[in-house]
Amino acid sequence: MSYHVNEKGYYGEFGGAFIPEMLYPNVEELRQQYLKVMDEPSFKEEFNQLLKDYVGRPSPLYFAKRMSEKYGTKIYLKREDLNHTGAHKINNTIGQILMAKRLGKTRIIAETGAGQHGVATATVCALMGLECIVYMGEIDIARQAPNVARMKMLGAEVRPALSGSRTLKDATNEAIRDWINNPVNTHYIIGSAIGPHPYPDMVTRFQSVISAEIKTQLKEKEGRENPDYVVACIGGGSNAAGTFYHFLDEEEVGIIAVEAAGKGVHSGESAATSVLGHKGIIHGCKTLLMQTDDGQITEPYSISAGLDYPGVGPMHSHLYATGRAEFKAITDAEAMKAGLELCKLEGIIPAIETSHALAIFENTKFKPDDIVVVALSGRGDKDLNTYIDYFGL
Amino acid sequence: MNRIHKKLEEDKKLLSIYFTAGYPDLEDTVPIIERLQNNGVDMIEIGLPFSDPLADGPTIQESSTKALKNGMTTKKLFEQLKDIRETVHIPLIIMGYFNPMMQYGVEAFCAKCAEIGIDGLIIPDLPVDVYEEEYKALFEKYGLSNVFLITPQTSDERIRFIDSVSDGFIYMVSSASVTGAKNTFGDVQTQYFERVDQLQLKNPQIVGFGISNKDTFNAATKLAKGAIIGSAFIKTLNSKGIDGIEEFVKSIR
Ligand SMILES: Cc1ncc(COP(=O)(O)O)c(C=O)c1O
Asked: Which positions carry the signal peptide feature in this UniProt record (chain B) (predicted)?
């Protein structure tokens, strides 16, 4: 069983590039170039240097002592929250901006939901002196004001997506339309392990630094490279893809993917795609997505804007279909409780996306000597208003 | 040989109109088709609305959103079109995104099209290589022409490949853009129209995207076999309703 993308861009039956002909030259150029470029010594050197000096990698693998005591197992946190800009998103945007430069592109577009990917994109565009346009749903612009301000300070133009439901999926549509309208000078930096091939694989490879580091760090701390479990939350699936990547073929490592159940998986307000979704096409790839019987894509719900996406990346659909990964769904309430608990137990304020991954310990039994590595995908600064409102702080 | 092939043999430039099924009102689909035919339109693209139309500009996005709100579904459209061949004899093409077709079942969708008398499909997000490998045999079994898009960015080599897989006509997207009405064409378009004309393809070309009036229609059909008007027609429906159809078609030719 292979969990990696094949030469046609599929993970099992999921993936591919279902794009209008207008996008073909750009996507095809990327498909032909991405592995070659990523393999160039000068690219690797520049990428690694920036990850080290600019992002602050390697991110620590932190043994969470009090949390481990509470849940009776050994919990390690992979601290992506300590990256520059506060989340794992920057690993991908650094990689893609270097790719865009190698391809001779001068204009960058991106979509964003919560604004984390938008900020990470605006940041690398400032770093490289490239024009940056970020599409963001009109509704998200209103509820994520600090990140909108950050993007503007970094020199990006934030364009409201006014179509459809005016959230992340519509911002993604608008970014794709922009790329259709600007086929020559523009690179689209997708923010998760989604989209047409080669995006899911390219984003996964850029994020795979997370699991590469986990292996080295765990070897130092525990004398073995492989934990018993790796755990990550899934929106489109980029932090999860990076956290799982180097363990996919290590069958002794259990993989746990955590989706947002919103107000309950079957409440009608949920983003638990693996349970509620069916195979279909969203944003250029065949994958599991939430839709009506008629094939219209539906609007998900989660308290966390970063998990509020109606699909999951094709790699994750394949991990779900093959049973390689176990999928869990965590409600708003469970996530918020786990987020606050991490503050009190470890002195770390996590992003609400991340809190979903942390919440599994409440109802999942691990053995005392199990080593469980959780991707702490981001910090909670951006979510302070949500925490304040929710807990009446 | 279906109605599209026969129509393409006629010695004239073809006017084709796109509209979104279920817009402005749910039950307007059939009256719009009948009026377009009765006013001399040569071919019709019936848009199956989708929640996330990636290749469409604001006008078609809005008509799609409204049509879905009105209650349009794939099943509903097939119901509306059930007896269409009693009154309409010009070629009818369904244009829509692939996901709703997948959910209906691609074979069931093709079978239903054949039963109703639909002649072809335009599916912007079904790439030509996937079509060739997985669906071509199915479309042929049901006598459906599948129409592919080319753009100013499409290489000669790929245009030839698309020509070899096509059966009917090639949809020549006028410029690198999503759908939407424009008022003029520039040098880039003219050069592209000439380049494609010189390739001497086996399938005739029909130009779409950005055709809005008599001038753009004439410019587009100088070399190509015909042109498709979408957004500009939908704007007319929006402002004048179906009573505006006659005047609109007359203004083009
Ligand atoms: C901190 C954090 N974690 C997770 C996610 C979810 O994205 P993905 O599934 O691509 O990792 C986001 C998205 O905004 C995020 O900001």
From this structure: none
| Amino acid type, B77 | L
Indicate if A295 and A176 belong to the same structural domain.
Answer: no
- Residue A188, domain member (yes or no): yes
Residue A346 designated active-site: no
A232 and A345 in a single domain? The answer is yes
Query: Which domain range does residue A109 map to?
Result: 18-51+89-198
Per residue in A335-389, pLDDT tens? 999 999 999 999 999 999 999 999 999 999 999 999 999 999 999 999 999 999 9
What is the rounded distance in angstroms from the CA atom of residue B51 to the CA atom of residue B67?
A: 10
Closest Cα in chain B, distance from residue A73 (Å): 44
CATH (domain of A172):
3.40.50.1100
Is residue A58 reached through a cis peptide bond, with omega within 30 degrees of 0 on the bond before it? yes
Separation of alpha carbons A231 and A154, rounded Å: 32
End position of a domain, from candidates A198, A217, A238: A198
Total-model pTM: 0.97
CB contact under 8 A, B154 and A21: yes
Task: Tell me whether residue A226 is in a domain.
Answer: yes
Residues A221 and A268 occupy one common structural domain: yes
Q: Residue B28: give its domain's CATH number.
A: 3.20.20.70
A54-68 residue pLDDT tens: 999 999 999 999 999
How many structural domains comprise chain B? 1
Together in a domain, A242 and A330: yes
Nearest CA distance, A21 vs chain B (angstrom): 6
Ligand 1 atom closest to the CA of A237, numbered from 1: 9
Name the percent of chain A in helix, strand, coil, to the closest 5: 50, 20, 30
Q: Are B131 and B146 in contact (CB under 8 A)?
A: yes
Domain of residue B150: give its range: 3-252
Q: Which two tokens stand for residue B122?
A: 């335009």
How far are the Cα atoms of A221, B132, B250 from residue B146, in angstroms, in the given order?
60, 10, 29
Of A20, A295, A296, the CB nearest to B102: A295
Cβ of B57 within 8 Å of Cβ of A164? The answer is no
Within 6 A (CB) of ligand 1 lie A 87, 113-114, 116-117, 192, 233-240, 306-307, 351, 353-354, 377-378
